[in-house]
Amino acid sequence: MSKNFEDSNLLENQKGIVHLDIWYDNLSVNKENEITIFDFDNCGNGHLILDVGYFCKQLFFIESDKNEYEIKVESFLNGYRKERSLSEKELKLIPEAGASIFVFYLGVQAQRFDWSNIFLTENYLKMFVGRIKNWLEYYEAKEITLPQTPS
Questions:
Q1: Closest C-alpha among 84, 79, 3, 25 to residue 49
Q2: I want to staple 78 with a disulfide (CB 3.0 to 4.6 A). Which of 91, 110, 143, 150 is the partner?
């Protein structure tokens, strides 16, 4: 775990069960707006901000228009905060939380590597590490603040 996570001194209510693949491909919403989450193969216990960082990281790479990305992130965070508050410390950990999930999944891919795993190549690793750098550089260039409290 990074020094930033250690230094954040997150409270016990900021830790718990994390999905680590929370994404709209892994949930279903029915006509009554009830949500079913599935694909729990990487879940465990940890900092809840990891799921927030993962979602934001995924959105970052599918939304090429970063103004649109910012609008969607703010909407996501406002919805999230209707269920659980986010501290300023947690918010500042979003970039590192997203990056740590990249590293986690790269580790999973490396552990599962065998001769038949043709996608884990030098070019793939360069692309993957490049994404981690792009993600972190984007957040180094901006100040992270809490959006207005949702009503």
A1: 84
A2: 150
